[in-house]
């Protein structure tokens, strides 16, 4: 099914094809625990993801191995998706940015990213 999402200010919008969202994923690594975001448990291929951003609005933060890419809107600060460390080139989306998803109603699993 098609999912649509955006940052808070709307400068960054995105759509992707993926399964129905029935679970969420959090992680205890150094960046995820600071962001506190709940992400899709499944990964999204680059070809299934369409990103539309006002020019200059989407910034990327990377650290350590620089494999994972943490994308954020530099106007409102919201983090709509990232490219994963474990599967480079694939994305997870921030469930809080998606239309029609209530993160508080979903079972959430915790990934032990701090051990990577
Ligand atoms: Zn924004």
N- to C-terminal distance: 32 Å
- SSE string, helix = H, strand = E? EEEHEEEEEEE
Task: Please state the structural category.
Answer: mainly beta
- What small molecules are bound in this structure? zinc ion
- Strand portion: 35-45%
Concise synopsis of the structure shown:
By secondary structure, this protein is mainly beta. It has one domain: Metal Binding Protein, Guanine Nucleotide Exchange Factor, Chain A.
Structural description of this entry:
- The chain is mainly beta.
- The protein has a single domain (2-107), classed as Metal Binding Protein, Guanine Nucleotide Exchange Factor, Chain A (Beta Complex), CATH 2.170.150.70.
- The chain is built from one helix and ten strands.
- Strand 1 and strand 2 form a beta hairpin.
- The model has no long low-confidence stretch (mean pLDDT 95).
- It binds zinc ion (ZN).
């Amino acid at each position: 099914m098609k999912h649509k999402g955006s940052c808070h200010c709307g400068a960054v919008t995105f759509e992707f094809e993926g399964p129905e969202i029935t679970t969420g994923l959090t992680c205890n690594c150094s960046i995820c625990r600071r962001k506190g975001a709940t992400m899709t448990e499944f990964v999204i291929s680059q070809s299934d993801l369409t990103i539309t951003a006002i020019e200059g609005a989407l910034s990327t933060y990377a650290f350590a191995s620089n494999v994972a890419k943490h994308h954020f809107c530099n106007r409102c600060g919201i983090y709509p998706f990232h490219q994963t460390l474990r599967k480079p080139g694939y994305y997870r989306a921030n469930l809080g940015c998606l239309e029609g998803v209530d993160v508080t109603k979903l079972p959430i699993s915790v990934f032990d990213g701090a051990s990577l």
